[in-house]
User: Fold these one by one.
Assistant:
Number 1:
Amino acid sequence: MIKNKTNKIITLIASIFLLAGCALPGLGGGFGTETIKIAGLGTTESQILSSMVQQLIEEETDYNVELISNLGTAVVGHHALLNGDADVLVPAYTGTDIVAIFGESASYDADETMEYLQERFANEFDQKYYDTMGFENTYAFMVTEELAQEKNLEKVSDLKDIAGDLRAGFDQTWLIREGDGYPAFQEAYEFSFGETYPMQIGLVYDAVASGDMDIVLGYSTDGRILSNNLVVLEDDLGFFPPYEGSVRATDEILESNPELDALFERLVGQIDTELMQQLNFEADDNLLEPSVVAQQFLEENNYFREEQP
């Protein structure tokens, strides 16, 4: 009797281990589902986009998703992928990666930069660099609506005749940075501003809106552009390198979970700069949680499925 019970227990244990080794469709094997680890920066923009990728995966698969947010820099995110601490980085910025990861000057051609990075990351790091989601978070000059209308300002070249009379607030590092900083800007556009003030970039939007500055340099997708009714001037000479936002994922996670590739491809070209501004505005000005902003956007677009409602 005891022997029969023992045999039954052994058989049960063996069955459990056998099932544990079998992967069911849509699952990562074992008792639980696959966990996809997504790394992102601490910015509002990164929190929205990483939440968007998280919710897209969870809506369309049985995988769990772990968000690793508030990383300090793109380099930290890069090493998280290399070390296996993360599987996906959202967003990766082309201009940042070419400078911070490879120590090179960014090209001023967006397509050329993207192709270069896609090849380098594939060959050297076994990672897929997806085509841009459609927006660039690059430096941008901005003024109030009143000044833009009064002086008929639409592009940076329109500033040439009045630049000497303007008070300009800039990120303090941009004033001295080589390549795409103020010294090179003066050569490219052939004019200088009357007075320049080094500032923390987070303060420039209020400074120009309040009249403390006449023109400032901010980020092109910042929600505070909408909050303060600012006008972004077109960089008509293409001075600033492209900072296109993309998804970057390891080959390992894509090979073991091939359905992820099609999900990430859904986001390509879906968010232009103005829309990214609006999404950031919803979080920063309307105080919606970034995850809520992401959820609303995905639901409004039916998760970018081929069959739209």
Number 2:
Amino acid sequence: MQELALLGNDACKKVYLKHGAQEPLFGVRTTDLKKLQVNYPNHHQQALDLYCTGNSDAMYLAGLLVDSELMTPPLLDEWVQAANWYLLSEYTVAVVAAESPYRLEMARKWIDAEEEMIANTGWATWAYMIGFLSNDYFEEEEINYLLERIRITIQVEANRVRYSMNNFLIAVGSLYSPLSEKACQIAEEIGQVQIELAGRSYIAPSALTSIASIQKSLGMETRRIPVIV
């Protein structure tokens, strides 16, 4: 914690607070936190202790140090309950959950939560799973259900939930070949996804444009995706 305090940056802290972070935090840049990861390998218990401090910087670092394979459903629930802004919910907890043995259980549970940050984590976990795991891991029927749920509800969901739903749509369209075309069709149907970021209106990344870009970078077929001008 002393090391984190020394790395704290007032300007960075102001930005984090503007984006929804809550005290306590030092304002350590994520790039600096990632550098610390190299210095503390295999520190699972220390990661758990860091997360329990409630300090945002320490909680982010905890996600980098923790052994996801050792996380249990009660621990994951504790983590998601404590994730009070999107840097922790969408990145720290969602990544750890997606890498854990209980990924599906937690993602299915969290997307139905009434709390915005928990539902947000659930959808982010789904998006990471699509990125981390082979297509064969998933039941096509379940992914189809999630796509239909997005089609119907995305525009009325809570702010950060909309953002993570949009990212899930991008993940499926880019990487889950059985339903890639359907994800593109839904993305075209729902159009722009507007969220609030740092007190201002913000348009989330276009799912269609993002899918085309990712597929192009992977050398995949993109002809079926409409061109966005």
Number 3:
Amino acid sequence: MTTPPRTVPAVPAEVPRVERGWVVPVAIGVTLLAWASAFVVIRGVGTALSPGALALARLLVGTLALGLFTLGRRWLTPTPREWLLLAGYGVLWFGCYNVALNFAELTLDAGTTSMVVNISPILLALSAALVLKERLHRWILLGAGISFAGVLLIGSASGARGLDDAVGVLAALLAAVVYTVGVLCQKPLLGRLPALQVTFLGAAIGAVACLPFAPALLREAVTAPPPALLGALYLGLVPTALGFTLWAFALQRMPAGRLGLTTYLVPPIAILLALAAFGEVPAPLAILGGVLCLAGVAVSRRRPR
């Protein structure tokens, strides 16, 4: 009597990773906190480093930190199309955005800058619907409008009076546009490439694009006070390396338009951080604006029937 062969159950090649429901919200929260702290640190650094030099210092530190984290991790070779998207992502968001934002804050007051730059979430929601074919329902539009009204109140409460400075306004508009295009370039990359790899390559490409500011950085770093250098170090480690990596992690898992609207929470968080760092008590209009930003983001997360 022969014994029938035993059937060995097939083992899947790769067990899918199950993520807990709180992972993505925590990643978004840490990202927003890191990016809000950047505004406070940039203000603390003051004029010790020029816009281009500060952007280059931040990107060099961020690239080095991200490079260390990528050691020993899975690496996928980008395709020619992905290299083109990486170039656009790195040059525009990491390079142009940082320089333009630093320059705008140098020539405009913080209120005006926040009002102009924060058209970017609306631009991103509309562009994601057109380019990435993401669904744009009424709750997203309504939430974007409510949050933008909150940003206007925060800007007016913090002294938005510099719209006559055409150069500064153009720099802030440039920051908003390149942020939008940068995210549109980043989103398709995250369909195949790891988030950490995409962030590292973007930061490295942005640093290369900012190398013309190297002489200014070397010259200014010699005379800059230690707090300014520590501020540049913090900007590279936390808002750049940590913040952009967690942003990419979240962007892999949700639509770009909806994720972009969460950045409306950055101004009210920055107000609270400024209160803790500088003892600045926000004006009543700024508090109301922060509440509207929170309400708008909450409305945008409602799902249509």
Number 4:
Amino acid sequence: MLTGKTVLVAGAAGLLGSTLCQVLVQRGAVVIAADLDLDKLRQRLIAVGCTDQQLVLHQVDFNQPEQVALLFATYPQLTGAVNCTYPRHPSYGRHFFDVTLESFNENVQLHLGAAFLFAQQAAKHFSVHQQPLSVVNLSSVYGVIAPKFDLYKDTPMTMPVEYAAIKAAIVQLTKYISSYVNDSRFRVNAVSPGGLLDGQPETFLQQYKQHTLGKGMLNPTDICGAVVFLLSDDSTFMQGQNLIIDDGFTL
């Protein structure tokens, strides 16, 4: 589906980003894999069966405007860009009453700020080159529904308030930028996954599964098909949409 496409994957060393790189290569795309730590990126790519010889690796801090601008300027041939970044402050993930204003602001700045910067520079890239470009943002089911706090009963986990605020904002940011650029050749859409399996406690996994239609927590590969679709010509006139992949979690 992606033969002839050149796709930038931001946050390529992450759980979803590394798997997505592998899938995109398998679908025929030339992949620019970008992340802050190239050693970690290489290790993650090897872990999913993808070598760095199959991709172009690029080191970048997605909270640094000059670096992000340079990233897009380096690859004028881009046809797609996927933002899988997930920057967090060490204070991230506290229970609601334990979150300070400073911590909340810092985490929103890191994560939502990176999402804004990525999408803004993608739009500038399109304005310069005037070639079709599909941007895919990663939101979450918790960007569209209220948290189900019963899932976290008898676990040390919670649903961070910063995460909910950020992911909801990414859905609106997706619509805003698509509307602002106002050109059908430039597409911005979002994918909102349900929970991704990543070593969570068994108690949580069982409680989560009860809210789905049988799958429970998803694997990263379960999300990649929707991203591939949005990057392909099969979604040419989709604009500002949010595809929810959650096995019924939001029903």
